[in-house]
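Reading is simple: each integer encodes one residue's backbone shape. The lines below illustrate:
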Amino acid sequence: MIVALLGDPVSASLSPPMQNAAFAARGLDWTYVALQVRAAALEDALRGLVALGFAGANVTTPHKRDVARLVGANVDSVNTVVIRDGRPHGSSTDAAILSGLEFERAAILGDGGAAAAFAAALPDAARFSRRATWPPEVDGVDLIVNATSEREDVLVRLGPGQTLIDLPYPATATARAAHERGARVVDGLDVLVAQGAASFEVWTGMPAPVEVMRAAVRAR
């Protein structure tokens, strides 16, 4: 079976080595491939997954919202597609990292597909983006999700008692500053492993080998 990553770009993604290590660990004759797909070809790509017998796909920037619309998902942002009964079904595992975290007040930075997935999981979270409310005000907020693509600027200054979930990898300037000031940082590789493990289970119906997946991305 084959699983694809659909995005533009995809060359820097660590999902292929992570998922291929997971398939091997479970003894599955499966392969995960990264496919660069332009926005104009996205609908054709989804049809191609079905026609070619793919098991499913992950979806990354900038296609998450468009895939949600094209497959008729009941969420605004899709990062996981499974082919079932001859058609693609979409869901999101982007916010899987939230499992096990304790917090009272949350804020989300960004307005893309990943931000939408976290907003669905955190409906009471404050939302900040450059297109709407900016700069972020996070005093009294104990969980901050950086779902932007900004790597060089420090977007918020955090400290002890606050947790940053930093989606990009490698670590952003915001994450480095948070770590230096005593905040807890959940980095983009941890986020990748959590969502990837959840996607693995959607496709295969088997428990994900999380430690194998973590080792695969940390070795890069």
Summary: The chain is about 35% helix and 20% strand. The mean pLDDT is 96. The two ends are 25 Å apart (CA to CA).
